[in-house]
Amino acid sequence: MADEVARQGDEEREAVISARDLVVGFSGEPILDGLDIDVWRGEILGVVGGSGTGKSVLLRTIIGLNNRSAGSIKIFGKDYDDMSNQERQEIGRRWGVLFQQGALFSSLTVLQNVGVPLREHMRLPEELVDELARLKIEMAGLPADACGKYPAELSGGMIKRVALARALVLDPDIVFLDEPTAGLDPIGAAEFDQLILKLRATLGLTVFMVTHDLDSLVTITDRIAVLGNRRVLVDGTFAELRSFDHPWVRAYFNGPRAEHFTFG
Ligand SMILES: Nc1ncnc2c1ncn2[C@@H]1O[C@H](COP(=O)(O)OP(=O)(O)O)[C@@H](O)[C@H]1O
Ligand SMILES: [Mg+2]
Fold first, then answer.
1. Atom of ligand 1 nearest to the CA of 57
2. What is the pLDDT of residues 199-232, one digit of tens each?
3. Measured at the alpha carbon of residue 132, what is the angle toward residues 131 and 138, in degrees to the nearest 5?
4. Whole-angstrom Cα distance, residue 109 to residue 112?
5. Residue with the nearest Cα to atom 25 of ligand 1?
6. Does the Cβ of 230 fall within 6 Å of ligand 1?
7. For residue range 18-29, what is the model confidence (pLDDT) as tens digits?
8. CB-CB neighbours of 77 under 10 Å
């Protein structure tokens, strides 16, 4: 595969996703306009920005759920527009998505929900689907007896874990997480952060995570991209972004909620 390799210092970085000059709109003014972003293999990239800046739209555009009116997206080094339908389907198996609204099917059990991508993308015997789903449910830190439960019987934290198990069920290279810790209490959120770190370490995942959660940003991201003015305003580490001169970035990274994070 003609993966793109960029160099920064001595470090070799491979872009698993590269978007250039993206323009995305629905009607009227575009939501994203001239946006560039790279996601490097193995990193946990945090994507932040004010409400309505287009974080979810960006995520959905990268995975092909929203149309773009201009710009290009390369995935694993290959331009999406140059792919055959079969290649696009294959790409769809190499990522998993945890949508902002959890998006579990309320009429399906946990086990059935987690098996959905397997049923969609693979032809496997039912017992194997259940077996693979069980493994991921366990990996997501859920007890075995969660398998037979319905979403309505689960806590918010458990729903996120089920959605994560589903996102992992095809053994993806990349997971997209849209506000995975929103609505969790601080302990649940911290546990979820640790789970993401553990999964990255054990599965070698690349993580694209939209979040508002400062604790998550500090604890688990390698790099943060800030959306504003319809594009990526700036990217860098949490410490680097603190000194970036933009009103929203300043307010967010130096506001009262960021105060207790100290960096040498
Ligand atoms: N399918 C859609 N049709 C029309 N407008 C949309 C659609 N999806 C998102 N938008 C608009 O795009 C803007 C950015 O939305 P979104 O990406 O969800 O914001 P956020 O950064 O909070 O995730 C919002 O104004 C939203 O109303
Ligand atoms: Mg959103």
1. 17
2. 999 999 999 999 988 889 989 999 999 999 999 9
3. 90
4. 5
5. 52
6. no
7. 999 999 999 889
8. 15
Residue type at position 203 = L
198: confidence class by pLDDT, cuts 50, 70, 90: very high
Q: How far apart are CA 47 and CA 232, in angstroms?
A: 9
Residue 78 DSSP symbol: E
What's the CA gap between 223 and 217, in Å, rounded?
A: 8
Structure tokens at 52: 């309505």
Choice among 22-31, 59-68, 245-254 with the minimum mean pLDDT: 245-254
pTM of the predicted model as reported, rounded to 2 decimal places: 0.92
Q: What's the CA gap between 2 and 78, in Å, rounded?
A: 7
- Are the C-beta atoms of residues 191 and 157 closer than 8 Å to each other? yes
Q: Which two tokens stand for residue 35?
A: 């946006």
Secondary structure E strands in the chain? 4-8, 11-24, 32-40, 44-49, 70-75, 78-79, 95-98, 174-178, 206-210, 223-228, 231-236
